[in-house]
Specification:
Elements: E1 5-6, H1 27-40, E2 45-47, E3 57-61, H2 63-67, E4 84-106, E5 109-127, E6 133-139, H3 140-153, H4 164-178, E7 188-189
Parallel strand pairs: 1-7
Antiparallel strand pairs: 2-3, 3-4, 4-5, 5-6
Length: 192
Amino acid sequence: MILPIVAYGAPVLRKVAQDITPEYPGLEKLIADMWETMYASSGVGLAAPQINRDIRLFVVDSAQIFENQEEDEKGEYPDEPGVKKVFINAHVMATDGKDWPYNEGCLSIPKIREDVMRAEKVTLTYQDENWKEYTETFNGITARVILHEYDHIEGKLFIDYLKPLKRKMLQGKLNDISKGKVRVDYKMTFAK
């Protein structure tokens, strides 16, 4: 089932999400719905707060980025061909490497894209959908997508990385998003 994506301004996007246990009700269906929602809205990642759940769960499919690359972009990033993974109870252990810019967007903040500086690598602990535990390091585009989704479960948004003047310039657009004055081709819910 395709779920509505929560728009900028909703309190759930600013909450630190809670760890869950294998007994979390309907988890398997929720994960399947998150994949379906992410693909239906042309995303490469989706975090539970974006569907109004304050739990530490996100899905990432960075492989799509590489599948859709132009021929001259191939081999540009060290994490090619990307990953498709579920992250439950993720906690970042370390970031490493140089910070590098990349133009990011967010399904909860439609029609706004900005360059954001993020570390080259991230090491995190997490569990997959079968509750197998991992401590794993990711790099390149995959690390960026993971860090973006991880921010969601920490109550942060990519716009928090922008300089104050840039944020101020975007405030009108952000206000319009929070009031539902934006058209998107996927289901959204707006703060009241």
